[in-house]
Amino acid sequence: MNDSTDLGGFTINEWTKKRDILKHNLEYSPHWEEAVNWYNERLKRRYFDPMKRMEKYATGEGFSLVTIHCSIIEHFASITQGKIHNHKRNNLSPAYEYSSSSQHFQEFLNNSYLFSEYFTASSGSCSIFDSSDFYSNVRCALLHSACTKNNWRINTLSCGHSNPDQKIMTINGQGIKRLFRDILAKKLSKFLENYKIEIKESTIKRLYFARIIDHLCEIRPDDNYPWWRER
Known about the structure:
Elements: H1 12-22, H2 30-56, H3 62-79, E1 84-85, E2 97-98, H4 101-111, H5 116-119, H6 131-145, E3 152-155, E4 169-171, E5 177-180, H7 181-201, H8 203-216
Helix pairs in contact: 2-7, 3-4, 3-6, 3-7, 4-6, 7-8
């Protein structure tokens, strides 16, 4: 990529200039606000707007949409923790790299408030769903086999299946697990709104954010920038 490459809301050159300002002041400021707005615009253009166009005319596009949702989930797991995927990671690699998408994805399902009611066991009880089941039979099954497995179904509220509380996913007495992709899309959009608030309130989240944007721009790690110093 070159400096004028449009990343969907900003260019590499714009970020390069902005990061040289941000490294001198980690307190939230209009400069951080602008960078976060660039990021939001990127996700809007590259993911959320195309999904809305698909949803508008969707009949059987649930597999396509949830495949995109799973991509966004893994990205949210990365940017909220400052994690970068490297399938060649070894014992000498920095702590912010991960090689196991399975562990990374499942930890987010288990620990994020977005999915806590589905995958996190409350005191003295079992969780309703298994994150390894979701990873293997929704995320991986869609990406690698273009299907869902192990009784997972993708539906919408308009399909007529019972979901009075508008849950992201439900399970019936026969063990049929239904993922409501329209509800999931709304929750992911809300997560992005909340993330913008979290960045404003948390220095560490800002550092993680800047590291991931650097990586997005293919800027190599540089300890002169505080977000590349391991934490």
